[in-house]
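The instructor's notes for this session suggest beginning with a concrete chain rather than abstract definitions. Hand out the sequence below and ask the class to guess, before any prediction is shown, which regions might be ordered.
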Amino acid sequence: MSEAKTILDPCCGTRMFWFDPQNPAVLFGDVRDETVSVTDRSHGREDGERVLSVSPDLTMDFRAMDFADGAFKLVVFDPPHLVRAGPRSWLAAKYGKLSTDWRDDLRRGFAECFRVLADEGVLIFKWNETQIKVGEILALTDQQPLFGHKSGKRADTHWICFMKRAASHGAKQ
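After discussion, reveal the predicted structure:
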């Protein structure tokens, strides 16, 4: 019998920030299941070709997940953060692209991530604010973050930690 999946990454993409992208405790999900080839001459290959593979354990939509309430101890939420990107661009292929209804999509995504998170569970949220400021995104959830950290060359990427409080602790559910 396989180890129970206690961690959920519903927007895993290429699993690029995981130290172990095959971690048996993690259920890797994504709406995409594809291998794409795009042109990007910025990374040294003469022909400019870059191949990217998104292969989740389970194809899923982070806005409507088919899991029981409280099913995971840890949720890593790294949704697409681009609203402007060419249809065949490397960035769109690597990170995904938000729809025109991105506010509703992310509001629903936060709600679903907190729904499937166990009481006292932790949600790690990753956001790059090159196109949309992190404050606009945090306004889409009623949950309060505990702490965060900026990273990246221009400190545009935010790693933010939440903990889901049990209903008896007064958290909004």
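Then share the key points. The first strand starts at residue 7 and ends at 9. Confidence is low (pLDDT under 50) at residues 168-173.
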